[in-house]
Amino acid sequence: MNNLFEVVIGLEVHVQLNTKTKLFCRCATSFGDKPNSNVCPVCLGLPGALPVFNKEVARKAMMLGTAINATINKKSTFERKNYFYPDLPKGYQISQFEVPIVANGHLFIDFDDGSTKKVGITRAHIEEDAGKNIHHGNVSFVDLNRASTPLLEIVSEPEMSSSDEAVRYLKKLHSIVRYLGISDANMQEGSFRCDANVSIRPKGDTKLYTRVEIKNLNSFKFIQKAIEFEVNRQIEAWEDGVYNKEVVQETRLYDSAKNETRSMRGKEESSDYRYFPDPDLLPLIIDEAFLEECKNIPEMPDSKRDRLIAEFGIKKYDATVITSSVEMAKYFEDMLKEGVEAKNCITWLTVELLGRLKGGVGVEESPVCAKKLAKLVKRIEDNTISGKAGKEVLDYAFENCDVEIDDIIEKLGLKQVSDDSAILAIIETIMNANADKVAEYRGGKDKLFGFFVGQVMKESKGAANPAVVNELLKSKLG
Ligand code: ADP
Ligand code: MG
Ligand code: ZN
After folding, report:
1. Cα separation of 221 and 236, whole Å?
2. What is the atom index within ligand 1 of the atom nearest the CA of 213?
3. Given the DSSP bridges, would you call strands 250-255 and 212-217 parallel, antiparallel or unpaired?
4. Cα torsion for 184, 188, 192, 194, to the nearest 10°?
């Protein structure tokens, strides 16, 4: 990256809330049903049909507001955002414009060195989703099952200064949403969608320059690449003296096949949408009791991380990895329930288990469950097997889901010998075979100790417990 410029990024995230029914009617929100099977006069926008607000949507919005330390507006409003598109049957989208339910929040993004950065969240407002246009050759179809399903649009301040920070922000927000359980946040299915607003400016300048809004970003990797492409395009335009011509406020589409952004349309101003209050909907009023109820949220990733550090003395980096997703946190806590050491859990979970899970498979889909991995850790802690043997056991457990840890240890013959008499017998054999070295050692050549340990381990075919070997050798060699 050119160091004469700095990058400014603000993100808009649309989260599909996982309510059972739609925002203003009782149609199901389920994904993948037969096209146009979950529709009614309200979400089809038929004349005379009246919207009735789904209270569960407010609950989930307020839970998010609480998690990002935002102000929750006890009175918010619904407006109509007017535009024409075939998948928008009413010709307008109901959204919150003047007063959103959630405003002025923030979250912290985490860096690998343990540092954090606060990013402001301007607002989070409730709105309805559109349907879907499906194109087959020359014919297009419209599926309105998604029409009027509830979305929460979460708008950040323009406070991120690299694609890396943008991705970290999104991962944190994704994690918060999943911890709250207010959305499945599945990016492929479109329940967590992001638009990235990108501009550049000469370093040190504080004013905001022209921004481009990139749409169609459905994976963290694409978001990173799209922002990088766009930043380079803007910097090149500046350096070539064509910034004012090439960088205009517009909406661009990211094409992942070509790894480039292309102009889609000129950027609308909010006046283009002719917002006005929806006459069919009263302002949304939240009473104190409901607000208090919704403020009662589960432990969020940052608090969980800090608690784990305080409780178990683990490193901040490890605690961040462990709490990065609700699935990881659950896996870790399920291991702890089995009474094994936190530090051992971390190593076996983050190094050994994650190292074996390939191709984006999450811990929740791991062939080895938390209880089973904890059993393996326990067998290392109680010296039944060595750490090295543990890796073999885990490899085997990955391929043979139905075999218990103790049976695997038995089957692979990995049980350590900790029994004193068996080890003493081996020590005696080794000492007899190396009488000269024993004399040298006793004469002061301390370095030979390692040689004896090695010989005993070899003789036991690696099965002797090294701690016991060390102890017994010390007393035998004198
Ligand atoms: P709209 O709804 O028209 O896209 P908003 O005012 O809601 O407009 O802003 C959308 C996003 O654009 C916000 O996340 C904001 O932080 C970001 N943003 C605004 N100006 C800039 C800029 N110059 N560079 C980068 N991001 C910006
Ligand atoms: Mg926008
Ligand atoms: Zn409906």
Report:
1. 23
2. 4
3. parallel
4. 170
> At which residue do the structure tokens 């040689």 appear?
451
Name the segment(s) of the chain with CATH classification 1.10.10.410. Answer: 420-477
Strand runs (DSSP E) across 276-329, as ranges? Answer: 276-277, 284-285
Instruction: Check residue 210 and report its DSSP letter.
Output: -
Q: Quote the ligand 2 centre to 160 CA distance (angstroms).
A: 16
Interval between CA 132 and ligand 3 midpoint (Å) = 15
Tokens representing residue 361 in the block: 């498979």
Atom of ligand 1 nearest to the CA of 210: 23
Per-residue pLDDT reduced to its tens digit, 150-163: 999 999 999 999 99
Distance CA 368, CA 354 (A): 11
Strands 284-285 and 92-95: unpaired
- Cα 42–chain centre separation: 35
pLDDT < 70: residue spans in the chain: 1-2, 267
Tell whether ligand 1 has an atom less than 6 A from the beta carbon of residue 8.
yes
Q: How many CB atoms lie within 10 A of CB 244?
A: 10
Domain range 420-477, its CATH number among 1.10.10.10, 3.90.550.10, 1.10.150.20, 1.10.10.410: 1.10.10.410
* Pocket of ligand 1 contains residue 158 by CB under 6 Å: yes
Ligand 1 atom nearest to 123, measured from its CA = 7
The number of the ligand nearest the C-alpha atom of 49 reads: 3
Residue 12 token pair: 């808009």
Read off the pLDDT of residues 201-231 as tens digits, 9 standing for 90 and up.
999 999 999 999 999 788 999 999 999 999 9
